[in-house]
## 1
Amino acid sequence: MQNLVVYIVALPVIGVLINGIFGSLIQKKLGEKVVGAIGSGTIGLSFVLAIIVFVRMLGEPSDARSHVVEVYKWIAAGNLSVSVSYLVDQLSIVMLLVVTGVSFLIHIYSIGYMHGDRGFFRFFTYMNLFVFAMLSLILADNYLLMFLGWEGVGLCSYLLIGFWYDKKFEGVNITWTGDAGMKAFIVNRIGDFAFLIGMFLVFANFGTFNFDSIFGTASAHFATGDPTVTWIAILFFIGATGKSAQIPLYIWLPDAMAGPTPVSALIHAATMVTAGVYMIARSSVLYALAPAAMTTVAIVGAATAFYAATMALVQNDIKKVLAYSTISQLGYMFLALGVGAFGAGIFHLMTHAFFKALLFLGAGAIIHALHEKQDLRDMGGLKSLMPGTYKTYLLACLAISGIPPFAGFFSKDEILGRAFANSFILWLLGAVTAFLTAFYIFRLFILAFEGKPRFDVHHIHVHDAPKTMLIPLWALGVLSVIGGWVGIPAALGGGDTFDKFLEPVFENAQAKLPTIFFMNASTEYIVMAISVLLGVSGVYLGYVAYLKKPELSAKLKKSVGDLYDVLLNKYYVDEIYQAVIVKPLTYVSERYLWHGFDEIVIDGSVNGTGKTVRFIGRTLRKIQTGFVQNYALAFVIGIIIMVGYLLLSVGAFAK
Amino acid sequence: MFETHLLSYIIFTPLVGAVLLLLVRNETIVKSLSILFAAITFILTVVLYLTFDAAKPGFQFVEYVPWIYSLNVAYHLGIDGISLLLIVLTSFLTLIALVASWSSISKRVKSFNFFVLLLEVGMLGVFCSLDLFLFYIFWEAMLVPMYFIIGIWGHERRVYAAVKFFIYTMVGSLLMLVAIIWLGYYASTLPGGTFTTNLVELYSIAPTIPLGIQTWMFLAFTLSFAIKVPIFPLHTWLPDAHTEAPMAGSVLLAGVLLKMGTYGLLRFSLPLFPESAFKFLPLMAILAIVGIIYGAFVSMVQKDLKKLVAYSSVAHLGFVVLGIFAITVESIQGSVIQMVNHGLTTGALFLLVGMLYEKRHTRLISDFGGLARVTPFLATFFMIAMLGSVGLPGLNGFVGEFLILVGAFKSDFLGTPAYAIVATSGVIFAAVYLLWMYQRVFFKTVDKPENEKIKDLNVREIAVLAAIVVFVVWIGVHPITFLSKSEPAVKALVDTMVKAKVGALGALR
């Protein structure tokens, strides 16, 4: 009965086919509601099936929960043979539930959000296609099928960022939403380049892409620290920095906010961008053999978490704040993976999916109500105008700030605890980030909901979101509160259920990690207390600076001076990339390769040959004068030369 | 009886059609008749495909009729899995090209259809010939109709492009002719040997030619093929020919004619002269990856849609050449399927650009913008063809590129993964030039009033493109249907090369 998994993947495809081919017709004849129902219904069914699979899995002994379902043989040539087959185990079921569940809610929300859009059917087609690709990614039992999903989600991201392709969007060298979509696709492809090379290395060494065979024989192939396995791990991680927006390939994510807000919630916050985290967790065995790669992951993760949080502090576009926040939170997940806390990384992936999806959907409700206004400086006072959105938003903000007992607290705390046991500096970065996170999110919250409205209340009549949008908000709100309870640590009297559930997946990797993690109870409490304290003070400072004493925020801005502009302009990294890579590349291609090499050197020589031949022809024509005497003369000269040559060659003149 | 002469039926059905055309006056009947014959040919190739037994070794559907007794030249046909795929591709694309040109050719309709069918005869003959002399005749025969197709029905600079195309190709093929005669002569100098152009016999004779002479022959053949492919830096005829040719011409030029070069490398250059091939392998691999990067960079800055697609062929064929010279089953299988892929996706892109030109009479990227709203069907098909070309997994291009790269990465013949690594960067650049073009043509808003009135695809155009998309998806989702046909032939070739390599090493010791 594991075959249910096939239906879970197939259902979104059915949605794609129906809405993709007949969607335009259905929308015209039967109305957009039908399109929306097909789009959400297929995902909802997938979610139900996923729950069934999950419940069945719980009935199995914990060491027999991994199943492979082969569908058909996909590519075969020489020694290479790859199947479309799905691996159902504890890790993929968690992802499956998160992806189908959150997707379902966001699909429902989109029915309300996209109401009246002429591309309604196109939207749902792309969204269903995205879910299909994401499911392929997480269920694949080999790297190649995973790559199919990996590229597939990238495609959907591209299509959906540029969904309103005739809309302008501001950015560095970006004027249209499509430019932002293109940027996302290309930056991701840079990561994919590394991912591909990593896959080639895997195939050259293992002769297969199959997870079971690779992970089963990895330690037989490589000793810990072997340069080849380190390369594989690093290359995979570079791939992950693309998809999961880490330094140095994070630059596409803020611009990805050009897409409709449900897209930002689903693809650019809750699911797709976590693909890199999932991929590395899946490859945990390889990483365990490559300590240098693990360290790299941890450092890049922590650095990204901090770096992105600083940029989130000053952004004025509500979605941009959330985008940098997402980058930062993903950094936490990589930090977790890097210090060997794979379970914690996935745990945070899950809780983050709940509260970040909610933060985005809430933002979408606000943007909707304010007629497409996204600037925090034009908001304010929405508390009383949009009570439903306000209440759910507060839950999400508390969750991301790491305030107990909200979901984010448990996952973030676990990561920080493991980081502390590993390296003080990594922990410090993470802890400071926790403070910054609480601060920027409550800055956002207060600017949006508290105070007096800063928009024109006479022209914009704000209503709370309709039911199709509010219900998903509340569902995610509940999950933002209780979602972390599955992972309450032993220190707080919990059972650490989440980690225990995933343990069989990571036990091979854990066995190879050099230090088994121990931290005495009192240290654990202290670390926990510090992170709570930092979260609370971040919230408090945000509250004071933006509500109680607004002059404080102005003062703050002044005191940091130029740094504020640097942050607002995102450290000018986009401009630097533009000047260092993009401009020279197009210049050289046009000036030197095309006009220079092709047109002058090659065609020049080809046309030159033509000209030479014509010149010779013209010259030779002059010899053909038509006078017999001239020909006779040439004839005689020719004979003399030939005879002379013959005589010379037989040595007639030799002494 | 039917099956023993199936190849002949396939090759000459279009010829019969071409001759019949001459008897008809009415243009609609001319067009219908040529489509009918192209369709019959296609159906015959499908029958061929279905009856072809991949498990059987060697050539199948062999026909042998002595022709010029004194030179041992014969009408000798036969196919293996590699030629099989290209034959089906040829008949498919010819049919597509004819249907697509229904309304785009307005002058001298009869001659146009006549030349296209004649071209098909030449192309099919090339892929079926097992006699070098016969091969050469088909090879040259196909040059003439193409010359006229470009020269008569092309765009503004058609004469320049046609002449350039003709001369470039001619130079190469003359050298090949010399090498063919030389080969035949060499066979006659062997004890008990006679002059022969029989490919099957030459497979065992040619590799024994002393390396010095063999190298010259390898170069003569390979140069001819390299021009056709085209391999960098012999590519400059291509952008002109592709751009100036009418839609059907571009489709067949890119879809089939270029493959004759890579097919030649597989069929002749490698197995006939393995030792020389090893000698030039690094050079060929370097030229291949230069082509990949160079083609992409130059595509990126093109202002003319058609020229952009044309330059992208240089990059795509670079992958194919790399796969061939990596000499692994994976990479050559990738190259074979990539030949088909390129025919489909680039063919589709040329069709789409041609359709756009027909509607708007411009090919300049900057003249467009916002077409996704005006012509949603055209935009959708363009997107799919583009994604196939970019190598998106699930569509056709990925299968070919991936197999080529993974094979090249671990190739013992190349000896280093460096080639594959550099070539892989091509996947980034392919995305850059295609997506950027798409952005400027289809996204943004319509800012020119002329573009408001562009008509979307009609039913005929949709049918043509949908037929291609079926295969684009099919190869992406279930490539084994096609890969399994060519696998034994490719394996045999790689085995030959490995044996030759071992032999060469033995000789050195």
## 2
Amino acid sequence: MNPLIPLLVAIPLAGAFLTMIIGRFITGIPRYIALATLLLTAFISFWLLVAGGGDQSVYIMGGWEPVNGIPIGIHLVHDGFSALVLCIISLIGLLSVLYSISYIARYTSGNYFYALFCLMIAGMNGVVLSGDIFNIFVFLEISAISSYALVAFGVEKNELEATLKYQVLGAVASFMVLFAIGFIYWSTKTLNIADIRAVFSEGHDRSYYLLIQILLLTGFGLKAAIIPFHAWLPDAHSSAPSPISAMLSGVLIKAVGIYVIIRLFFNMFEITGAMAVMITTLGALSMAVGVFLAIGQWDIKRLLAYHSISQMGYVVMSAGIGMTLLARGVRPEVAALAITGGIFHLVNHAAFKGLLFLNAGAIEYSAGTRDLHEMGGLARPMPVTSATSLAASFSISGIPPFNGFFSKLIIIVAAVMARFYLLAALAAVVSIITLASFMKFQRYAFYNGEPGRIGKEIKEVPLPMLMSMVTLAVICLLLSLLALPAIRDAVLTPATDILIDQMKYSSQITGM
Amino acid sequence: MTVIVKKTTQLIAGIIFLYGIYIILHGHLTPGGGFAGGVILAGSFILLILAFGSDFLHLLREERGSTLYENLAILIVLFLALSGLLAGANIFFGNWLPHGTPGELLSAGFLPLYNIFVGIEVAASILTIFLALVIFKEEVMK
């Protein structure tokens, strides 16, 4: 019972409501409250990552202990995988708030921005920590509703259209998730993830089980914007204010989409061959189609948004490869490698996609445009933005020594070792097309032509924005250290272990 | 609205308000509780606004007040939950007050307190949503 675990949800919630109360009387304070909240959250998540050592630690809310091994209270579960995702959430959140201090000053009603931001963080932390499928739904709605409002923050025509689309598809997704939870509760009489697994393993109707799986995969697939369900993402992520785009693309689709899919399909359901093939296919499809949709875009934020779909495809595909091997029961070490690669790429993507959206925001802030046709020669007036975006572009296209190279390498090597030669080749080709599309971004934005074309004087962005961009660029470099065996064993391996070992997740909760 | 509507509203708004308070206070004993009671409380305010028209009450000032109450109430709920963590038992949402005899009004430790503040929170937030919609419509009409 580590008391720090519930604080990860309680602190951002308190921050959100304090912002609204204090911001009413003293203007200018809310941004510092949000910053302090995120600093505290980041400190706690890193402390839990380092001190926890990847061990599973369960917190029972209200002290409702299990009765006869059946959990009756709400459980918060902190293990290797959730520790990593919590660190991403709070780190990218902290840097986005730092960036917002200058960026949001242009908008009115900053209070609401910071309050909604803290609320979104609280929701995501809740989703990641919850060991209870209904609470996943509740926190999912908290983060989703605050993100609908944040996407519409500019209140222009585009923003409102994007947020409407996002809300409609988000509501469909939530409905499917709730429907599936209802089905699960009907047949198992429990909502605890570990307990659901225990009840299902005693015997279940196969078609009923498949229906639940499909509903959950569709619901969370919509949240994660895997390819047939991706329609809302490019609009929503490009219309939001840039720090929010960084949060949505860098963190939200992972925390409420990919994380939950991986968690449920490894730790709640039995791994079956059919679902493994389906997840691998969806991943490979997102990876390939996303990048082809991205390369034709001229709006920088839309281009980045389509790349998010493609990069998430890598993560889903490698998790699917791991599942396929586990379902066949052959070569668990290769399955572990594939899943490690996927989780590594998830962490990396948060860093470089967050950075790229912050760069796009900086360009929009100084040059006032998002269209690549209208830019050019920004490297001279904006040297820091140019350098950091070069670093991020190298990372996402997989150029050593940046982090993206190592995670893509691990994924491709794992695919080859698992004898998925076609998927390995596809991953390599997609990586090359990604490189091409980022060369286009670099050329048209920073190098081609003269900055005078835009018709106004372009200056480098203010210091807080620079600080968060430079920090993220350094993080992009430092994350490649996770490929070293010693650090990988300390950080990534616990996350993989909890997913691969079928009994490890449930054992401590149900006390068996 | 006509005199009949106004007079009837005047007569029943107070009773509805009292009924909401009753539901909230007996939340740990009977069906209902903070959420249901809060909705009833908000209902009595909304009834008054509907009957007497929006210029009778100073809507913007109301809205500011209800937002403040909403945020304060939820902060207090959070603080009560944290008090379980601080009170030595080390349990978030821990119920460390004496539980009393089941069935009496003053029993069940923290539950009545949670119900009261959740009731305030729900009433204030539903009123805020209603006022926001009315204010938005008036601004559009102007």
